[in-house]
Amino acid sequence: MRFLHTSDWHLGRSFHRVSLLDAQAAFLDHLVATVRDRDVDAVLVAGDVYDRAVPPLAAVELFDEALHRLADTGVPTVMISGNHDSARRLGVGAGLIERAGIHLRTDPAGCATPVLLSDAHGEVACYGLPYLEPALVRDEFKTDKARHEAVIGAAMQRVRADLATRAEGTRSVVLAHAFVAGGEESDSERDITVGGVCAVPAGVFHGVDYVALGHLHGCQTITDRVRYSGSPLAYSFSESLHRKTMWLVDLGAKGEVTAERVGCPVPRPLARLRGTLDDLLDDPELERHEQSFVEATLTDPVRPAEPMARLAERFPYTLGLVFEPDRSDEDTAASYAQRLKGRSDQQIAEDFVAHVRGGSGPDDRERTVLHGAFDDVRVAESAREVSR
């Protein structure tokens, strides 16, 4: 059986205030064409269909059109909700839509009810694990701790229990939206660290033939059977070196897996340029980036006059401007943004405590209080999105 594995469409998202709706429409054209041209048997969409819980109308219309076009191919689609989606909104009408071959899996309680597909070698059970917010689903899965590994592990126990009731030789596929250990992050994924450690080991998915992951935006192979498709478009300059693709996965008669990357259309390449303003304006080697989306980091010791306007004369699609002046060893103070880059909210808060106390950081009890406060805020935000 041949699957087309994709995820993280983020319909409605912009790139530095530039609308990507046309680019997203072009990707969906490409998706439908690939389904038809490559003899795909089923489409797997591993979450983050939308960019936010209440998407703009244009994004909803684009999604609606995509559903009709996928249904018209006669190829079943299995789709789960991600951490950016409102599971309730995405799942509206799921029962009716299923009659057209579009299988929406947005309810955690239904994670062990598979979509059953079949080919010449027998049945394939496709299980959809929507994004599982630990604090919101721990009661459903009766876990002692509100942690990602605990709730996904409990969901997978249900999957394996159901699979054990199936006919011998039934092959299995799981869709999940999670941060699996070994994956490489980018700047455009929303933090999912509620409940402490957000990464789950790949071994939690043992016992199934293929795991179609969503959440991380780079196409990645965690194991031969556990893969991220990545997002079809770049959503931050940290993805400038990504090759955006989908996975074309062939599942053999005995569950053997082979996979091929299928490239996605690139509406406009990304470029991260660094140097003095004069160097960026004069360097002939940079001609190939003149029609790219550009993030420029200027290293001039003194901030030049009108840098954005001058850059735009050569690079009209300059969207980001960063100043990192080259200074002597005596002047190495990093900017506030640089000092915060890559640090969690918890680390920033602990540094602040140390700062106001003259270097004495929080003790273990205070760290626990801070950790709980941040968890409460994140859970409240997630609950608000679910209830919208």
Task: Give an account of the 3D structure.
It comes from Streptomyces lunaelactis. Heterodimer of SbcC and SbcD. This is Nuclease SbcCD subunit D. This protein is of the alpha/beta class and 388 residues long. The protein has three domains: 2-263, Metallo-dependent phosphatases (Purple Acid Phosphatase, chain A, domain 2); 270-326; 327-388, no CATH class. 32% of the residues lie in helices and 23% in strands. It contains eleven helices and 19 strands. The protein has helices at 21-37, 57-73, 87-90, 94-98, 134-141, 148-164, 277-282, 307-314, 336-340, 345-356, 364-387, and strands at 2-6, 14-15, 18-19, 42-46, 77-80, 102-105, 115-119, 122-129, 171-177, 179-180, 199-200, 210-214, 220-223, 226-228, 245-251, 257-263, 270-275, 293-298, 318-323. The strands form five sheets. A six-stranded mixed beta sheet has the order 6-5-4-1-15-16. Strand 13 (220-223) and strand 14 form a beta hairpin. The protein is globular. 35% of the residues are buried.
